[in-house]
């Protein structure tokens, strides 16, 4: 199956051809996928080598000249390692760019903890003015990439993952999508965890909202859902557990509510394993989610998740 990252380079290469403002900045990773685009646009496809701080600094400089830089590498090298440059070169200078990550929380287990970044969205949450997109399917990744590049001079983070749902959804780059409706709580599934959430909540009387844009948080969409389903809210995020619980509490600050944040735990898993084993270890597989969500909404034992 085609991955989100497989879709990334062809889409951005077409955008380079279509829009003279678009530029691409790389740090070795992903350079082969842009070889042809670099030959066509040598002045707008830049490889800075293994220098992630320079990666962000160069993108900022291009943005300040009026270009729209698309910056790509693994999430740990795109957000965590050059965070000071993200904060100052982009944020402090109010320079816009599209940061597109790969590897997500643990998509390359053999790379070890240096190539894992479950805290990337939480880290960006300490900064002002970032849009954060978390597609759950290659089709959605293409839609969100095009939205991000077209978003004027905004600062946008697009989080690509090797994990994906079986089918893409129609998304608009702003709002949550109601996938299932119920009356005993709301479950917000972010990006590639949707399939597991749907399996986990099969037969439970809950509303399932699908989120691919998590910043800005769709406050109005959540409030509409809670009017019918109640104010017990479960967040299932493919990154650090609890990253968006404050956003939920802010959205529901004027009404009594409960919120449960599920996601990647803080404990470092020191064995490589597989993606599926990491998913299970963090309790993000359908069986674990069924138990945790069911207990929270008071529905444990009613429905068993199939093998």
From TrEMBL:
Task: Please name the Pfam families in this protein's record.
Answer: Transket_pyr
Positions of the Transketolase-like pyrimidine-binding domain: 2-167
InterPro entries named in the record: PDH/Transketolase (IPR051157), THDP-binding (IPR029061), Transketo_C/PFOR_II (IPR009014), Transketolase-like_Pyr-bd (IPR005475)
User: What GO annotations for molecular function exist for this entry?
Assistant: magnesium ion binding
Read off the PANTHER family from this record: PYRUVATE DEHYDROGENASE E1 COMPONENT, TRANSKETOLASE-LIKE PYRIMIDINE-BINDING DOMAIN-CONTAINING PROTEIN
The protein's name in its UniProt record: Transketolase
């Amino acid at each position: 199956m085609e991955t989100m990252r497989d879709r990334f380079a062809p889409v951005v290469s077409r955008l380079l051809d279509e829009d003279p403002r678009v530029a691409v900045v790389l740090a070795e990773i992903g350079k082969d996928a842009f070889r042809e685009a670099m030959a066509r646009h040598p002045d707008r496809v830049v490889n800075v080598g293994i220098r992630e701080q320079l990666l962000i600094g160069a993108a900022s400089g291009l943005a300040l000249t009026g270009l729209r830089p698309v910056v790509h590498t693994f999430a740990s090298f795109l957000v965590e390692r050059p965070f000071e440059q993200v904060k100052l070169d982009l944020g402090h200078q109010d320079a816009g760019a599209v940061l597109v990550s790969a590897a997500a929380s643990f998509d390359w287990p053999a790379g070890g903890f240096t190539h894992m970044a479950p805290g990337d969205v939480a880290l960006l949450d300490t900064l002002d003015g970032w849009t954060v997109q978390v597609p759950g399917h290659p089709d959605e990744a293409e839609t969100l990439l095009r939205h991000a590049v077209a978003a004027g001079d905004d600062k946008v983070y697009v989080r690509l993952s090797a994990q994906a749902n079986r089918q893409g959804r129609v998304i608009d780059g702003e709002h949550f999508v109601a996938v299932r409706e119920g009356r005993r709580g709301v479950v917000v599934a972010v990006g590639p965890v949707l399939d597991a959430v749907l399996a986990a909540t099969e037969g439970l009387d809950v509303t399932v909202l699908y989120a691919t844009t998590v910043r800005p948080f769709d406050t109005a969409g959540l409030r509409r859902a809670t009017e019918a389903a109640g104010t017990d809210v479960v967040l299932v995020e493919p990154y650090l557990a609890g990253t968006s619980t404050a956003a939920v509490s802010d959205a529901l600050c004027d009404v009594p509510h409960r919120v449960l944040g599920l996601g990647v735990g803080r404990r470092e898993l020191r064995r490589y394993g597989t993606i599926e084993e990491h998913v299970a270890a963090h309790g993000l597989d359908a069986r674990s989610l069924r138990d945790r969500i069911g207990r929270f909404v008071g529905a444990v034992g009613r429905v068993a998740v199939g093998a």
